């Protein structure tokens, strides 16, 4: 019995055991099911056959730990299946792991962006081309060539790094998921990732870098004053 619960615990599923049957609640599903009946130690040995007969969990399709994806799992959205019960009364639930996996990918991306090798590669690329970009509506023909090289060098580095950490990772699909969530994503990590799919974001990145190099970047801190209040 303990071994059974340990396996289910590893896949973050809530197991509810009753004497007449076993129920598995997943996230919101657990809120609609009957509360669990406390199982005494004396009943545990008799309940084991019932649990094994009534609950069949497709472990082969359940996702591993988000940071240890197997090759049998699409790391960006494959559904997990749970079969509840047996026969005609059985119930199959499809649970999307997309959000969990997306958050896990972002965590790995943050690690890559903080890596010294990436920071060095990015700085070298910016130093090589920042003087080409001008804050004008008209875009030079050279911008697109630089953009293509940026994707080939910088994006490829991130993709290669992520593939070493996550089997089956697809940068193309990940970028599509980013675009689908764009309105709700904020922060430097996402701004950086959007430079791979959005030319305007790419150009703005170079313009910001140029402003920093030329000392023309706006320093908002100069408009902030702190006054210490003293009692009269």
Describe the structure.
The chain is mainly alpha-helical. The protein folds into 2 domains: 2-96, no CATH class; 100-216, Adp-ribosylation factor-like protein 2-binding protein fold (Up-down Bundle). Helix content is 48%, strand content 10%. It has 8 helices and 5 strands, in the order H-E-E-H-E-E-E-H-H-H-H-H-H. A hairpin with a 4-residue loop joins strand 1 and strand 2 (22-25). Helix 3 (98-113) crosses helix 5 (141-165). It is globular and about 45 Å long. Residues 1-39, 44-86, 90-95 and 219-232 have low confidence and may be disordered.
Q: Helical content, roughly? A: 40-55%
Q: Quickly give the CATH architecture of the largest domain.
A: Up-down Bundle
Count of helical stretches: 8
For the biggest sheet, the summary is: 3 strands, antiparallel
CATH class type of the largest domain = Mainly Alpha
From the alpha carbons, calculate the radius of gyration and give it in angstroms.
Answer: 26 Å
Give me the CATH fold name of the largest domain: Adp-ribosylation factor-like protein 2-binding protein fold
What is the total tally of β strands? 5
**Spatial ordering of strands, largest sheet:** 3-4-5
Counting structural domains, the number is: 2
CATH superfamily of the largest domain: ADP-ribosylation factor-like 2-binding protein, domain
SS strand fraction: 5-15%
State the shape: globular
User: Would you tell me the overall average pLDDT?
Assistant: 67
Task: Give the SSE string.
Answer: HEEHEEEHHHHHH
Distance between the termini: 72 Å
Low-confidence stretches: 1-39, 44-86, 90-95, 219-232
